[in-house]
Amino acid sequence: MSSVVLFAVSFILVLSWIAEGYRDRQNYVISVEEKMDLLEKDRELIIVLDSYATELNEKIIMLKRIVKEFKQPLEKAKNREEEYLSNPIDSLSLMRQMHEDWEKVEKLLKKPVGQEKIALVEKMREDLPVENDLMEANQAMFRILHTYDLEPKDVSAGWIDGVQYGGKMSASDCFTMGTFSFMAGSYQIASKWLSAAKDLLVDQPRKYHEVMGITKADVTLLLARSLIASGNVSIATDMLMRDFMFGEAGSALTVHFLRNKPKPSINLESWESDESFNQLCRSSSRRQMGESKPSRLHCRYNTITTPFLKLAPFRMEELSLDPYVIFYHNVLSDAEIEKLKPMGKPFLERAKVFRVEKGSDEIDPSRSADGAWLPHQNIDPDDLEVLNRIGRRIEDMTGLNTRSGSKMQFLKYGFGGHFVPHYDYFNSKTFSLETVGDRIATVLFYLNNVDHGGATVFPKLNLAVPTQKGSALFWHNIDRKSYDYDTRTFHGACPLISGTKLVMTRWIYELDQMFLIPAVLPPRSRNFSKSLPNPF
Questions:
Q1: In this predicted model, which residue has the larger pLDDT, 308 or 239?
Q2: Where is coiled-coil annotated (predicted)?
Q3: How many Å apart are CA 516 and CA 372, to the nearest integer?
Q4: How many domains does the chain have?
Q5: How far apart are CA 374 and CA 503, in angstroms?
Q6: Which of 93, 125, 157 is the last residue of a domain?
Q7: What number of H helices and E strands is found in the chain?
Q8: How far apart are the C-alpha atoms of 270 and 365, rounded to whole Å?
Q9: Binning pLDDT at 50, 70 and 90, where does residue 528 land?
Q10: What sign results for the dihedral spanned by CA atoms 262, 263, 268, 273?
Q11: Which residues pair with 478 in a beta bridge?
């Protein structure tokens, strides 16, 4: 199936409303496979609905035929009722019809139609998206617009970041996004979505939208509130007074909305990013990797990190020397990637974020992806050998020891999937340094090419790295001389616009490097675990 259709399914099929918490069931927003299943369910439901409509239509046809039959004697009696009723045949027919036929008509009217179809729809709805799914879909679409600086009018017409995706959004879709934006306190964006919804309502059947729970009055009132909340009071008042539904009451409504200012009920702060991050995401969505790297750096073959590289060197691209950020090309083969995918996908669950202040992992809106740890329990020996081989390759690439923390994290990003800028190190007393220490370096493998979006960016380095299948991005999180944290490694994953993004991360820990890279300078800002004294 094309990315165009999958993108449309990502947003349009996920329709319920606002959520409370996350759940352990299908992840329709992130998983393409589950969206495919959702699309199949949609087909099945449409078949059921069409069959139900056919049964209703058959009943309507029968009722219209009865009406036609019942009208015939009335037409015959028109303007000659007394003569008609004096005819014994017509009198008997009238008596019989009124006594017998109307009883049968009543039974026909009361007879349920398509009860098994209704029961089937009720059963299938148990596996359909719930409120939280739409909340995540709304957040994903809002995040895409905010990050890539897109206009709701363009997106509703199928234009996303300069690409025409073919599909168009309905009035209901735009109204849903307008409502979400309004509840999030983004009133200008809400106004644009609601204006698009209002325009679409003009071209679409009114009764259909009323059945679907959206009316022109609903859209107009929320649009007026959004305009007033964003400071466009005169525009809102003029719109209300020109609308025949409100007329002179428009001024009173404006006064009411001014006195009762809306309060945001959706908090977006946990995943909002600064403008430098957004700018890099915008630039990386339409250019090749490396255009943002400093001109003094270059590509070369790494033959010196370990003796093995003299026989099989890696092609590396230096993106930054301080801090050290390297892009390795073609370090994973297609065969290895195809082995990794089935290892991770069956064990995917919502990826969590480590909260330093709590000392625990938790699901958080700042990260929207599914993750699995490799190797997992009961892994096949052949699969384990693939992971071990990749582990040895990491040591050849980095020149670092990887004895501790042998697990890798397999990650899958879907529609709007992202990770806000963050540090890979913890620098926390709640994170024990007794066994492994903190994360001295990160290796990020890209397992596929991404259709649109999804770059890895370093705002403080003005560096954007689009995905490239089989490649790996490597950087140091900690200064190699002092073992102090390097805040310039602040990085994040841009929202994915289309397709799926598969990556695998391996963190390298500092205590494994104790004799390999000894510290020569004292750190400036380390928070050591209470169970381990400060070595400096």
A1: 239
A2: none
A3: 30
A4: 3
A5: 12
A6: 125
A7: 17, 20
A8: 6
A9: low
A10: positive
A11: 485
Note whether 452 and 342 are same-domain residues.
Answer: yes
Distance CA 455, CA 286 (A): 10
Assess whether pLDDT exceeds 70 at residue 157: yes
Concatenating the DSSP letter of every residue in 19-86 gives -SS--SS--TTT-HHHHHHHHHHHHHHHHHHHHHHHHHHHHHHHHHHHHHHHHHHHHHHTT-HHHHHH
Which H/E stretch holds residue 473? strand 472-476
Closest C-alpha among 81, 109, 107 to residue 94: 81
Where would I find the beta strands (DSSP E) of 260-407? 299-302, 314-321, 324-329, 349-350, 353-355, 360-362, 367-368, 370-374
Q: Residue 412: which CATH number? A: 2.60.120.620
Q: Which two tokens stand for residue 191?
A: 């106004």
Cis peptide, bond prior to residue 264, ω within 30 of zero: no
214 & 295 share domain: no
User: Do 417 and 501 meet the contact criterion of CB atoms below 8 Å apart?
Assistant: yes
Whether 413 maps to a domain, the answer reads: yes
So what's the pLDDT on residue 430?
A: 57
Q: Where are the alpha helices (DSSP H) in 204-232?
A: 206-211, 216-229
CATH number at residue 206: 1.25.40.10
pTM reported for the whole predicted model: 0.81
Q: 436 and 464 in contact (C-beta within 8 Å)? A: no
Of 107, 125, 143, which residue constitutes the final position of a domain?
A: 125
Whether residue 232 is predicted with pLDDT greater than 50 in this model: the reply is yes
Give 170-201 as a 3 state SS string.
CHHHHHHHHHHHHHCCCHHHHHHHHHHHHHHH
Whether residue 267 is contained in a domain is answered as no
